[in-house]
Amino acid sequence: MASVQTSIILLSVSLLQIFSGVYSATFTIINKCSYTVWPGILSNAGTAQLSTTGFPLQPGESNTLDIPASWSGRLWGRTYCTQDSTTGKFSCVTGDCGSSTLECSGGGAAPPATLVEFTLNGYNGLDYYDVSLVDGYNLPMTVVPQGGTEGNCTATGCVADLNTACPTELKVLSTSSSDGSVACKSACEAFGDPQYCCSGAYATPATCKPSSYSEFFKNACPYAYSYAYDDGTSTFTCASADYVITFCPVPSTSVKSTNGQFPSAVAVSAGRRDTSANFIGGVIAAATALCRLSKLF
């Protein structure tokens, strides 16, 4: 009897570990822009895929996604997207992932695009996250951790509107004269020079240094990656947190809000799907049934 009870306890613990670890975080993605944004998501090789890789967000809308344990990948916003009425091909002026459909399905963002990068449950159990302008910029974004227990859990991002201020040689102009500049290229994309791309003889932190172009991004958005080796002021850590990712977080071109800080966590319009809680409830029910079963032995 003792061995049966021990087996039941071990099974219950195993079930709890398995089911409660299916989702490690939620991403709440909010669009505060005055225009539609189509988020795109790319999971890194060897990591679990998400339930969606692309969807539309109208102004003021939000969507909450359950994120698998130890997930790593990137998320960005696509803008000026259309679907051809004849062929059905879906394409975007900025951030297009080349899939020709609403879902990115394993395709990454064509630069220039503002990127949010995550590695969840990484070294020492910490989440690592950043907002990157290494591949250029197309719209403001912030990441705000919620409920973190360890790490610095700092809000980060780029609040400034860089499309207007973008140097002329880096600007991406819309085919519609009314839209003006819709994105800002990185110097690497614009010129292909190894010193800007941190490649070839410049492929180490010692040889690849900030340029006047990367300094343009850094001065406007001091907590975002401005070039490949900009780790010291651009990578943040947290543990056991959920994350709010916001497009166009504030109606301002200033990098900081009036109190000198990044915006605090914002309210969301969509209800959270607490899938993990449902799993845990199921595990508890299963464990109870197993305990009742043990009384038969």
Automatic annotation (TrEMBL):
Coiled coil: none annotated. Pfam families: Thaumatin. Residues 1-24 form the signal peptide. Transmembrane segments: none annotated. The keyword Iron does not apply. Keywords: Disulfide bond, Signal. PROSITE patterns: THAUMATIN_2. InterPro entries: Osmotin/thaumatin-like_sf, Thaumatin. Disulfide bonds join 33-248, 81-92, 97-104, 153-238, 158-221, 166-184, 188-197, 198-208. PANTHER family: OS03G0233200 PROTEIN. Belongs to the thaumatin family. This is Thaumatin-like protein 1b. The lineage of its organism: Eukaryota, Viridiplantae, Streptophyta, Embryophyta, Tracheophyta. The gene is LOC115995417.
